[in-house]
Structure formats: C-alpha cells, structure tokens
Chitobiase
Amino acid sequence: APRGDSRLALLLLLALAPLLAAGTHCPCSEPELCSPIQHRPDFEVFVFDIGGKTWKSYDWSQITTVAVFGKYDSELMCYAHSKGARVVLKGDVSIKDIIDPTFRTSWIAQKLDLAKTQYMDGINIDIEQEVTCLSPEYDALTALVKETTNSFHREIEGSQVTFDVAWSPKNIDRRCYNYTGIADACDFLFVMSYDEQSQIWSECIAAANAPYNQTVTGYRDYIKMGINPKKLVMGIPWYGYDYTCLNLSEDHAGYFHQVWYDNPQSISLKAAYIQNYGLLGIGMWNANCLDYSKDAIAKQQTEEMWKVLKPKL
C-alpha cells in the first residue's frame, strides 16, 4: 500500500485506540466488579436514576436494579455491582423506525455494544408512543422486545431486559400494545402506576396522581389477561403535583393550592398488595426526588420512604 495510506491507517488506529480500550479497561478498583450480575432476586426493587450523585445516599440494602436515565456514571456502575445490583441502559426509539427489521437489528446491536462497553447488565425499554391496535407498529414493538431480549441474554450472561407499560392495559394515552406478547418476550414489565390522570388527553383538574383503588384495578386487568404476577413490578411515584386553585375571587387567587403525592402510608398499602398478589417487586420514578440533605426531618422522611418499599413479610 502507498506510504500515505499506511500513515492514514495508523493515525486512524491511534484516534480509535481510546474507544477500543474503553471496552477492555475496567474502571472499577476491583476488576471483578465489571462482571455482569448473575443473581435473580426473589423480590425486585427497581430504581430509576436521572443523574447526579444522590445515588450515594440510596438504601443499597434493598436495590436490585438501577435504570440509568441520566448520564452514564462508571462510579455508580462499580458501586451498584459491589452491592449485587444490576445497572441497565435506557432504550428509547421511534415507533415508526422499528417496522423495518434491519433497523431493529442495527438498533439492538448499538445498544448491546453500549451495554458491553459500559459494563452494564441489560436494558429498560421505555417507549411511550401511540400505537394503533393490530397495526404494523403493534407487531413490530413485540418483535423488538423479543429480539432485544434474545440478543442481550445471548451476549451478556445474566442480563435483564424489561419494558415500561402504563398503569392499565386499556390503551392509556392511545397506546395499544400487545401486553401479553411483550410480557412473554422480556424478563418483566415495569408498570408505571402514576400519572393515572392523563397529562396528555384529559383536562388538568386537581386529583390524586396514583389513587390506590385505581392502581390495583390496573394490576387486576393485567393479571386477568393472563400475565403472570411474577412478570409485574409496581412503579410508584416519588413526586407529586401542586395545583393552584383557579376560579377564586381576585383577592384570594394564587393563595390556595391542592397538593397530591404518595407518602409512606399510601406506599405501604401498595406494598401489601404486591405481597398479597405475588407481584415480582416495586420501583419508583424516580429515586433522585427525595431530599437527601443532612436536615434531620428530611433524613427521617427519606428513610421512611425507602423503608416501606418492601412489604412486611
């Protein structure tokens, strides 16, 4: 080959060297912490993390999976692995694109490569887009989940593939998904039992974000479809809504609010339901929401929120 081509190839190799090394160099103090987690817990505590360093204050005695929805943090990965917890990627993609099988294959390969490079343990697929029943997208979505699960399970030993679904299977926000097919195709469904008042289609009137009776109706419907309770993880909100009361006299406008949120009492009722009906576990959107400051009252409240996640056995 001409000398110029050889030089170009060498420069290209040098430029790629840091990227190639990333997949082989473990960032943890102990190399074994870069190995995928193999253990399957009896009870799943699935934590969404959106970035920052508040994860250092989480209750790691409970956590089994962390879904990284913020910037990748190798320190978080190493620490989670030291506690026996999985760390998984976020998987989001346009529903229109996945109709093409070639695109699906390429998307899965990219995600798998990223997971391996970052020493992660799987992927949480978070696609909350409209799908029409029995449309090409309907079938493609199920195929994507199945193909992703097969690839991850084959390539990363012990890996976990999960899919986020609405609080009810009844086409919430025009999402008609093949729920039984998707549940069969992945490790479990994370049920987003919050925003049960549609923030998209209904009028924004003050009401509970995740009322107990409505929440459990969603699980009854999923189970009635034939989905095994052990394929369902209950998502709870660690955030609330502050509604300013309107239609008041001008003298009082803005002074009155309704605030709706879950607290340890409401969460403990849901945790009891999980135990009574044999669901796989619990999780929250999102773990960063609590006050992890040194303030004594905040510390006590935060500890109580973590404590009630596990049902009393």
Summary: The helical segments are 3-22, 74-82, 101-117, 136-155, 179-185, 212-224, 264-277, 296-307. Residues 42 and 280 are 7 Å apart (CA to CA). Residues 3-22 form the longest helix (20 residues).
